[in-house]
Write a structure and sequence with these properties.
With about 120 residues, the chain is an alpha+beta fold. Helices cover about 55% and strands about 20% of the residues. The chain has one domain. The protein is globular.
């Protein structure tokens, strides 16, 4: 699978998960994307470049994060045009970073989310 196709699969994960036709878990979609065989060098920058071209993908990920029903995991949150990416574990937020770039924050969130799900 080409790197571009894998990147497109990754940025579209959030929208694919809410598609009523989808019957696969996020774990299966990640594995089928080819992510595990992908060279990770510059991957965040490549994801960010794709996200910059289509803001609806970022909105899908913001919605995905907001609608998660779990007591721990990665999140992304828009706070007055600043974007907080962090890890929530019960009542504690850790590893949080504030970004001014929504595409950079979203790319970071996607990679953190994927790696957390696979590990």
């Amino acid at each position: 699978m080409k790197k571009y196709d894998i990147i497109m699969s990754l940025v579209n994960l959030a929208s694919n998960l809410v598609d009523p036709k989808n019957k696969k878990s996020i774990q299966v979609l990640i594995r089928e994307s080819g992510y595990e065989s992908l060279d990770k060098v510059d991957l965040a920058l490549e994801l960010e470049a794709v996200l910059l071209k289509d803001r609806s993908l970022i909105m899908d990920w913001l919605n995905w994060s907001e609608n998660k029903r779990t007591d721990k995991g990665w999140f992304i949150k828009n706070e007055n045009h600043r974007y907080l990416v962090g890890y929530f574990n019960g009542a504690v937020i850790s590893k949080s970073i504030i970004y001014s770039s929504e595409s950079e924050a979203c790319a970071t969130f996607i990679l953190n989310e994927i790696n957390s799900i696979l590990n």
